[in-house]
Amino acid sequence: MTILRGTSRKKWSTVDRLLAVAHVMAQDLLCPGCGQPKNEAYNPDSEGYYEVRDAVCNGCLAVSRDGDLHKEHQPERKVMVVDERPADVPLKPWTLN
Description:
Elements: H1 2-5, H2 14-28, H3 38-41, H4 58-69
């Protein structure tokens, strides 16, 4: 979209409008509760084939811990997550088990 590309247009371009419509259409194909494709998850034949798995978002965990330290409301304070891992420390392959 033009905003992400850094242009200063005040109106959306044709590409912006098409991307927005495509995003809405893609989101409409997913269950709003679990994010699975509706055509598969809503099919009665798929019952029993889904399971729940847990994962920890370490970025959200850092924000939660920060909130525990700063319980006082500070509207001017903004919190953002930054990955501080050194470039020479690769992540191991990860799969959701």
